[in-house]
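Illustration 12: Diaminobutyrate--2-oxoglutarate transaminase.
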Amino acid sequence: MPKDMAQDRSIYDRRESGARSYCRAFPASFTEARGSELFTADGDRFIDFLAGCSSLNYGHNDPDMKAALIEHIAGDGIAHGLDLHTSAKEGFLNALTDHILRPRGMDHRVMFTGPTGANAVEAAMKLARKVTGRTNIIAFTNGFHGVTMGALAATGNGYHRGGAGMDKAGVTRMPFYGYADGVDSAALLDQMLSDPSGGIDAPAAILFETVQGEGGLNPASAAWVQKMQTIAHKHGALLIIDDIQAGCGRTGTFFSFEKMGVQPDIVTMAKSVSGFGLPMALMLVRPQHDVFGPAEHNGTFRGNTHAFVTARVAIEKFWADSAFEDDLTRKENLIRDGLQSVANLIPGAYVKGRGLMQGVDVGSGELASAICGHAYENGLVIETSGPNDEVVKVLAPLTTSDDLFAEGFAILERAAYAVRGNVKLAAE
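Figure caption equivalent — predicted structure in token form:
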């Protein structure tokens, strides 16, 4: 056991809310981080396959982003600017336009929301309702969109929904792609919306992730996503793609829906959009749907000036040409191979996901948690996902070296081998 794990952590038990989560599985006190590695005060080292739940796609403390941020702060650059014009915002918007939106044929406007993904989802749902004059949102099984009340209505997870303490309204839930064997969920939705007795109110929007992160790394097919766009527009609804966890390169391209032949009406983004782990969220919206009045969806911290600085550098450094994206395809295969070695140790286990958002379904939350716990004891931070936490999920920084991937997967493979005989699979 690393030395740091034995230290006194009683202050957290005495003073911090019981709502704390990740620190229960990873109780070390971390003091430094570089790239894909975390360090404690005692010098213990951990490989990071969590990356702030995909908030650190470019790793910890990227030197170029850090230098730009230090220069901005040292020069008395704006720290907080509401939604005022600032040189930092202008730099980010120009970089986003030149290197991300225009090359992908996207004419979307950028709305800065409060700094969390849930707030971006709230804004997207509100905007769709204002545009269409309707209230119903179509969301999907195992979708996760946040835990504030509007976003929570669209979230499927029963544990989080149970924390609301009141009814969640305004959403109709349908089966996600592949959720029910033999069911074409797109055809089912279209049929129900087309039938005047189908029982679904005309929707303002259809909302989903192309790869469900917290829901268990369930990827939708391109054909299904295309059908959802067709169904949305056929029935007068907007298509909202939640790219908060799956975006910023996590699935191998900047947006998770690239190469799928769709153009969402609204895209929500957060997590790695700042590039540096700083809180920032935004909503991309087609110009014809940009109908909010001034401050109609506002917030004191809409737009993070420090995040503008680092986000600009992230885009210019990693997305100005194709080199970074091209290498993600190679890393996708590397991750799949590493996870397959883990899956081979456990009967019935299989690899799932897409891009650098992959994991192995081991069939049991107890087993997946045991694997992650053993891995942590040997220097690897990795979490679970899925409705029963049955998926061991890799969200390593996209910049992780081949050597660190190899070291991390070796720890993970040893963990699976060590605990597999001690925990029964759910099917047994």
